[in-house]
Amino acid sequence: MRPRVRVRYRKVAIRAATAIEGEGVTAYEIIRKKRDGGELTGEEIEYFVRSYTGGEIPDYQAAALLMAIVLIGMSAGETADLTMAMMRSGDVIDLSDIPGVKVDKHSTGGVGDKVSLVLAPLVAACGVPVPMVSGRALGHTGGTLDKLEAIPGLRTDLSVREFRDLLRGIGVAMIGQTDEMVPADRELYALRDTTATVESIPLISASIMSKKIAEGADALVLDVKTGSGAFMQEEAMARELARAMIDIGVRMGKRVRALITDMDQPLGRAVGNAVEVAEAIETLRGEGPDDLRALCLALGSEMLRMGERAASEEEALTLLADAISSGRALQRFREMVAAQGGDARVIDDPSLLPSAPLQMEARAEASGYVQGIETREVGQAAAELGAGRATKESSIDHGVGIMIEKKVGDHAEKGEPLARILARSEQAGIRCVQRIVDAYGLGDRPGSVPPLVRSTVE
Ligand code: URA
Q1: pLDDT tens profile 23-54
Q2: How many CB atoms are closer than 10 A to CB 72?
């Protein structure tokens, strides 16, 4: 069942519905108009978003409109209207009473992308407040909220008051969409996750930017993924997505920069939920995989400069490295976990995180160098193990996952593990093993390792 939003909002939704219905427009006609290539008015978009969030339009009609948008697209004006309608579905927070430039980062979605778990406490430990509203698993990609909730007890459904208190107290809070904040994105996001309606520049832009504007950040760094594990596989499309989001941000008076980054192989080694939390903790300790650390430093450096804590890249990198080596970044994560109700003992003892009972190996069927990894397949395989959802009602298995042993450029002997699978059942594990073996491309020469940061858009 779709949770109902609070009374104040429902009253507004009913008024909006009546106004448009008075002119003879219905959800059916809006879907048909978009399906046939028409441009929706701001009023139609507002009506649809309010009525869906208020529970008056059912999932099947919303799914039909989403699919029409994926297939037909939206103009820049429609995308802006959709973003504003989603943003206005809840409160828009004013954080101006909290000192400092508030800076957030958001990723367009990847496989093994646990950057937010490292970056938010790291940047906060350097003195820049980070108000972060994140999402759950989406399609084949993982979600920050699901990963955080692998920590026993941790709540991501904080009230706006709790969110503000945390920001004021420890300079960082990581929460999800709630009844109070962007409920429209919570509903539409969950629907898109299971209806193959993610890969759309207007839908991704509106989803990300409605959250980011509502949360009250002054500036935003976007991590726009490209490659076989990204929603925008072609770099040109990733740049177009970055441009669309920057345009919306600028219209709303926010400073926004985007890095186009590689998703042609999983980031780091862990893919799942609890395993990604463990890897994020390792990275905050200064021991994580090189690519994950490098990306956190690149994005963190942008955030510190936008937050006016560093004047140059060198200065920012020094501050970030010091926050890690001194233990301050890990301590900030510990404080945030405890403040959000989580069991902070996991930070010193990750064995307290949930773990699936079975371990299996996906082994190389012949010797060779890893030339490429079908990264979407790896994400899909993890989701099928239980790390993602098959339907809106499915629950996540936080303990399952995949540990990548061989990355692009590595050599594997026949029979050596390419990846280790953490599964709940033997059947699920065996299916995953085959999928992972098939996702690896091995050859005689080492594949070229793609650059982690491909370009910048501003
Ligand atoms: N992240 C979001 O919040 N929304 C999307 O649509 C994709 C990534």
Answers
A1: 668 999 999 999 999 999 999 999 999 999 99
A2: 16
